[in-house]
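ok here's Pentatricopeptide repeat-containing protein At4g20090:
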Amino acid sequence: MPNSSTLFPTNFLKHSLQQYHHKPLSLLLSHYSSSNNFPHTHQPSSPPLPPQIFKSRSHEWGSYKLGDLSFYSLIENFSASSDFVSLEHLLHQMKRENRVFIEKNFILMFKAYGKAHLPHKALDLFHKMEVEFHCKQTVKSFNSVLNVVIQEGLFNLALEFYSHVIQSKGFNIHPNELTFNLVIKALCRLGLVDQAVEVFRGISVRNCVPDTYTYSTLMHGLCNVGRIDEAVSLLDEMQIEGTFPNPVAFNVLISALCKKGDLVRASKLVDNMFLKGCIPNEVTYNSLVHGLCLKGKLDKAVSLLNRMVLNKCRPNDVTFGTLIDGFVKHGRALDGVRVLASLEERGHRGNEFIYSSLISGLFKEGKCEHGRRLWNEMVEKGCEPNTIVYSALIDGLCREGKPDEASEYLLEMENKGHIPNCFTYSSLMWGYFEADDCHKAILVWKKMTDNNCNHHEVCYSILINGLCKNGKFKEALMVWKQMLSRGIKLDVVAYSSMIHGFCNAELEEQGMKLFHQMLFQEPNIQPDVVTYNILLNAFCTKNSISRAIDVLNLMLDQGCDPDFITCDIFLKSLRDNMNPPQDGREFLDELVVRLIKRQRTVGASNVIEVMLPKFLLPKASTWALVVQHLCKPMKVRKTINECWSRLCC
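and the structure:
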């Protein structure tokens, strides 16, 4: 083997040793690990590192050889910098020199592979530990690799790895609490909650004790599949077993209950938190705000925000974003703008999701000038709009009936390097169809194709609907066949549009054929009230009242309630096509009774709301039936008692 003088010139060694003679070893290692002095190509005939840096004047370090600690430091440095090429060369050199490998260094390398999203490298190295590097794996290194695989979302692979290692006699690894936590997490993420519960119940057999993380993970899995009551029971069991719940455990349950709309139980859990000495954090409050917004209790959500501040818990972007989104979804976008102003007063800045939600909401509510003003304010404040915000503005302008102006913003968006998505193009295409500019709508479709933006099923539905509305049924039929040939998922809009196209072309029977295909062959796509109204209008227009009644009966049997358009279709037909003309009172009255008997009080109420303005009063017996089903006896009794008490006073 060549000596050191043949590898490195004498002058270089002298200069290097003089330069680092009075410096700590860590600086010296940092120099070699961060510079190009460490070669990236393997030379079998010579070591890649100068042997001088591994010499030490101190005595031997236990079972380690001289310089082993220097190798360990290099492993740490290369792992931290994700320099896997140098790391691999270093491992080969250590193996050639029969250096001692320790598990701690392998764990560092596993974490580095996880950070670099290389789980298979971590698995490969784990299996080489004992065979190639003579380092026995323990549960520590096993857990480290298992965690890396799970963090990458490879849950099935993680479970296979777990079964292989635990069942293999060659490893002789006994799982601990962390192992079970990771396995339960993988099972829950796969939706295998029953198996997760089984693993949980078997923890005690392995002489392990579940901790707070174990309980929280399983509770989260149960909540995700709608088994909230079991998750709450698990919280009680957790406390009985002497495991003190932390805010994470409470937040899992509070969040699930709020999403379900069960705010009463959620608030009781918050009270329980205080009793247990757990202080609600921003996650707790965000869940409650979200729950209140879902219920439409926006004023209470604002009050909770103030309470949150009083309890020295600072609202974050999620809090404000949830509240603003709640205002927008309930048609109060201007109140959402006021919340944004409050957010900015507190030193926060609105993000792209907040601005897109508000701009979209303002345009949907017809407050176009407010939407434009908010856009200008956003730009003036230096908040650069991205694809999401541009798409919201383009959609809003199209709703305002200004697709040409929206097209200009699309061009500006592209010039600034923001790539339009399916929503952007479909909004513009819809805008041109609504403006009866079919040619420009098709140009948008072609531009979408030219820019390699995959056509989403929504885009196809908008194209088919627009072509049918503009009398281009043959073209729509071609697009429909293209969807089928490409295996693109059909939605209710696409089906309804094609049925409408058939009906407009006086091909009602083919429309019915497509309707039955939708009804009986597509279990995930069921007709909505729009689909039924298309067919009802087609048959009533042709004076086929009996066919229309058949469709109405099918509509009721499928659980779809009629709306005011349904009522108007029949009222018009009864008035114009019957001899003598009928006002439709008896027909609608009977429809109300049928809906009430099916426990469909909302649908019945909708029909009555159509009848009253037209002075088509229901029968007295129908009124009694409606009141009986709408009013709960206990509430009625309570209201009567309150009235009497006020009268007596």
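+1. The longest helix spans residues 633-648.
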